# Entry
Amino acid sequence: MPDINLFESVLDHVCRCAVDLKLLPNVEAILKMPMREYHVSLPIRMDDGTIKAFRGFRVQYNDARGPTKGGIRYHPEETIDTIRGLAALMTWKCALHHLPLGGAKGGVVCNTKELSRAELERLSRAYIKALCHLIGPDKDVPAPDMYTNAEIMGWMMDEYSRIMGRSSFGAITGKPLSVGGSEGREDATARGGWYVIEEAAKDLGIALKDAKVAIQGFGNVGSNAAALAASIFGCRVVAVSDSRGGVIRREGLDVPALHRVKRETGRIATPPDASSISNEELLSLDVDILIPAALEGVIHEGNAERIKAGLIAEFANGPVTSGAERILERQGIVVLPDILCNGGGVIVSYFEMVQNLNLDRWDEEFIHAKLRKKMSEAYQEVRDLAMRHGITLRQAAYTIAIKNVVDAMSARGWV
Ligand code: GLU
# Structure
């Protein structure tokens, strides 16, 4: 895979729509710069008694619309540039979905597969110790992302509450249900993405029943995307993969069986009636819907021409680079952009914050209905603008999001 800088790709999208929005150069310059960045060292005691220091980041990209919001990733190849790009995406995502929140992202350079549970807990608590005065319900609210989960969010909320000397459930979202987590948060990103696909499929004349779907990634987002595809929409999931590779079965995979094996062994196994497939092969399958649900930059100028899917739904953040986007556009492939498609996670995180701040509890059905309404309204706003101006869904989504951020900056007298 070529060396891809997510932040540059995001800035390229901003430039493209800054022209349409006729933004003044100084306003564009503010949008292209993170407001605050923190680099921290996280020394922890390892199980063998030695001390090891990990690197951590938190980027608070823009808080014009409210407290910043965004996940924390644990990844061995984490870089500040990626976190910057992801924090910018969170800013546009919250603004596009009309949430009263800014955007942020955090990361720790580590390999969770090489850490014990106790080491993981100490590392997660160390992250909060290092940043506790910079986060909080009215400052910046972290959440899960790649290789972090509800259990880790529970530890982080506990550490924050202990240091602050009060129960501060609203400081972190994506927590376990027993400590202020929200119903519907676990599969919110995938579910929200499917609600957008459902709307787009009507416009594009794709029948979801038996539609062929390939999903790259089998973490929280990818595995829930597969489960929902088969169970609610009756799609045929023909291929899935994780970081090690994937499996294909043209008649459709037994998704519950794949989940069972992944839970038990930590990996996707190839059932006797299916074949193995590489991540690269999965991307170029002839399917109706391709869902990249893992890393950024997987569809790039080097492989975009081989994509045969009619519709790409970006459940991951930044899976299609700006260079690849131009090629896909020429091929007539429709891309449902990340900030539209994967907003379900942060939307339900926002519902979680509201419940925590009001000491309230909403039931799952209510949350699903509210999520569906927000996702379909966002899709319709984006689709209408795209049709009116003859632009792509990504350009329309960025245009709406950036206008919302600029309006807030202007109302606050920043520009
Ligand atoms: N990490 C998720 C995202 O990229 C969710 C963020 C949140 O819930 O704050 O959108």
Residues 69-71, 143, 145, 173-174, 317, 342, 345-346, 349 surround glutamic acid (CB under 6 Å). The chain has a mean pLDDT of 96. The chain has 14 helices and twelve strands. The radius of gyration is 20 Å.
